[in-house]
From TrEMBL:
One Gene Ontology term of the molecular function aspect: DNA-binding transcription factor activity
Keywords: DNA-binding
Domain HTH arsR-type: 1-90
Pfam family, one: HTH_20
Name the UniProt record assigns to this protein: DNA-binding transcriptional ArsR family regulator
InterPro entries: ArsR-like_HTH, HTH_ArsR_DNA-bd_dom, WH-like_DNA-bd_sf, WH_DNA-bd_sf
The UniProt record lists the keyword Aminoacyl-tRNA synthetase: no
Length: 105
């Protein structure tokens, strides 16, 4: 799995990582703040953040002793673009089927 799209979808396959992404839509957060919402260790949350960072979904910056996670929205354009392409194709296929059924006597 070496392309950006595959890494992003794989990263989002985990429910904890999806929850982290959802929380980061509200504001940047530290590992400690994110871990407070999950019954897992700080190390586990840090590992999830590394996966999200490798997928390009987040970036992290250090501020003193704290490390803040920030959501990177550009990858979402890639994800939604891929999904929209196949959603439109499926809709067109269903529309053609509807047209055929409407022409039936």
């Amino acid at each position: 799995m070496d392309d950006e799209l595959s890494r992003a979808f794989a990263a989002l396959a985990d429910p904890i990582r999806r929850d982290i992404v959802a929380r980061l839509t509200a504001d940047d957060m530290t590992v400690t703040e994110l871990a407070a919402h999950h019954a897992v260790s700080l190390q586990a949350v840090s590992k999830h953040l590394r996966v999200l960072e490798a997928a390009g979904l987040i970036s992290r910056r250090r501020d003193g002793q704290q490390r803040w996670a920030h959501l990177e929205v550009d990858v979402f354009d890639l994800l939604t673009g891929w999904i929209d392409t196949y959603r439109r194709r499926a809709e067109l296929r269903h529309q053609r089927l509807d047209d055929v059924l409407r022409r039936q006597p």
